[in-house]
Amino acid sequence: MDLIEEEAFAKVVLDKKLEDVCANCFQESIVKKLSHCAKCKIIHYCSRECQISDWINHKPECKANLRIFGKVLYQDDRLIARIIWKLARDGDPPALNGRRWADLDGFRDGKHFPITESELDGFMEALAMYMGSDLPKRDVVKNIIHKIDYNRMEIMNDQLMSIGIGIYVGLVAHKHSCNPDGHILFSGGKAVFRSRKKGVTYSKDLTVNHLSLMQTKEERNEHIVRNFGKECNCQVCQDETRDQMAMSVRCAACPKGVCPLNLDAGQLLCSTCGRKAPIGIKEALKSNQQVKQQYWELHKRKKMDFRACMAESVNVYDRNVSKLSHINLYLARLASIIQKLCAALKDKDLCRQFATTPLESYNYFLSPGDRDLTEVHFRSVVCMSLALDNPKNTPELRNLIQLTLSLASVSHGERFRAYAGGADSSFFSYLGSEEESEQHICDTVIETEGRIQPKDFHIIRVPKQ
């Protein structure tokens, strides 16, 4: 359930999304072309009302855009500029929970987001050309940069794709936990604190997760230490068996046997039958590292040849799938990336192979209400529908859709209708009539929010054609 929402202290659309996202309400429009500002022609709006509403923020920005002859300043610089103008215009008003810009943490003892003087020179030079006499002193800009690095949030659309960056002074104060009370979603440009449980009231002491839980403790804490200054010591991080299962290998004797990767043990044993794993610890670590490396290499690439990346990823997956278990976290993450690639390329054979491959692992490590769990189920629906010759008459797809909608109702509430593309989208059309689609949306929101349980999960396979 939604507990509270907050307007951004300052926010900007990503460079690559400037023509597709309204700079005021942050609604995305791929089909309908947005209208640009008549003067600077850089910032876009979905309506006259949004343009008028954002004018107080865009007025100095518009002049600045003209000052640099219509060039697009990098998104980080644009956010810095908007914050400078905001502070000069409005001072430092309190947020929803009393927090102010001045209360935000910034640079800590040279350990977080160090910025060299030469890098600061680059910021100052770009901002001086952009802002002119509005640019404050060097130390003020440096402080703002540090606070942005430490506190900014990525603004996501309903499909959890990044469309902007912003500062939310109130909600950013919530401490991280890998076993959180809730999570933050976005309704356009507003940040929404959403609890997974009913009966919870908003409190500044509630925790949120600031990263994906489809990571090992080492990966999570690398991010947490870099961003928050100390390791997380929550219940999830204290669970040593979680990482052992995350890096587990297959048992040769049991169809679903899992051999946890316990580095302190002399050998790897199946948790079901107790037999020795077919590979040793050294080979298990090597196999996990290969899959993990492929996943991160794909994430680091700025430009991607989809077909080449898919071939590389499938090759790595095929080399290791016989060694790693069906719930291995790294293998599931790579399979999830392959899902994205084969869906984008509409590769029917690979869509069939990977349609539901990651689900067992995601269901094991995540609980209903987690956005990543919802996302991977939606992606599985897309892949399965592409793989089938007659998707409308396939019970397996219908069952997967109903489970996915139930998950979405927990993680997104009633806004999951937008997540799925609306009741008239092809997603809902697989349910049958429009009335049935609407009724299922209603039933899902009313009956399952906060009450869907892990026991309700079952693996749905793509039927043979």
UniProtKB/TrEMBL annotation:
What domain of life does the native source organism fall in?
Eukaryota
Which intervals hold domain MYND-type? 22-62
Signal peptide positions are none
What are the recorded GO MF terms, alphabetically? Answer: zinc ion binding
Per UniProt, the keywords (alphabetical) are: Metal-binding, Zinc, Zinc-finger
PROSITE patterns xrefs: ZF_MYND_1, ZF_MYND_2
Q: Which InterPro entries match?
A: H3K4_H4K5_MeTrfase, SET_dom_sf, Znf_MYND
Name a GO CC annotation attached to this entry. nucleus
**What Pfam families does this protein map onto?**
zf-MYND (PF01753)
Instruction: Name it.
Output: MYND-type domain-containing protein
Q: Native species of this protein?
A: Diploscapter pachys
Lineage, broadest ranks = Eukaryota, Metazoa, Ecdysozoa, Nematoda, Chromadorea
